[in-house]
Structures are given as structure tokens and as C-alpha cells.
Amino acid sequence: MRMGSRFVVLVLFLIVLGVLAALNTDFLTYPHTLYLGFATYRELPLGLLLLTLLLIPTLVFYFWAGITRLRAEADTAKLLRDMEGLRASLDQREGSRFAQLQTHLDERLGALESRALGSGSGDADRAELAALRQRVEALQDDLSLQLAQMDDYLKRRLG
To answer: Do 31 and 44 meet the contact criterion of CB atoms below 8 Å apart?
Structure first.
């Protein structure tokens, strides 16, 4: 239950209890004798005592449930902050790995191009290298798009 609905239920319970108490004032204030074993209380309004003993645990439980809910929300918020920090750290590591991979691929493609140009091989090798470079760039763009989508999804889920 959310805090608002729990409060509404508590208020309705107190209203019903108040109406019953108002309708039965004679019963609540009728004097009784209370024996506790070690003490005797004469002309004690036992109905009022029982009503008070009912209200105290009700209010204690209400506030205890609210505090428990606040603690759970604080734990959830802490966990979400930790997850966001972990996600940022992983994104940074993954970004450096992709940069290293890009550097390595550029070096390899540069070496292949220079070898193809140095050996004087034909236009077919150059066209193949250009197609390979375009494919690597397309894969890089696709990977960047997917990472951006995952980042947006995680940001939405983590709040």
C-alpha cells in the first residue's frame, strides 16, 4: 500500500471508532472494578481504557510501517546510485576498449592499404579495402547506436 492509501485507511478506522465511541459513551464511561492481582482499581471506566489500549498499538503500527517503507526506499535509492556509478564505470571501460579496437583496426587497414599500394596491385584490392573500411565504419556506427540505446534504457529504468 502506498502512504496515502494507508493514511486514508487509518483515518477511516479512527472515524468509525470515534462514531462508535460517541454512540456508546455510556458504556465507555460506565465505572467498573479492575483487579490486577496486586492492585484493585474501583470505578474505572474500563471501556475508555480498552479504547485507549486499542488506539496506541494502531498508531505505533502505522508509524512503524511508514518508517519501514522509508528505509526500503532509501535502500532502493542507494542501490540505484550504486548501479548508476557501476554503469558509468563500465561505459568508460567499454569506451576505452572500443577506442583501442578502432586504433588497432585503423593500423591494420593502413598497413593493408600501404601494402596494396606498395605492391602495385590493382584497383580490385583498393576497392576491397574501401569496402572493408566502409563495413567497419558501419559496424562501429551500429555499435555506437546500440550502446546509446542501452544507455537511454538504463537511464529510464534507473530514474
So the answer is: yes
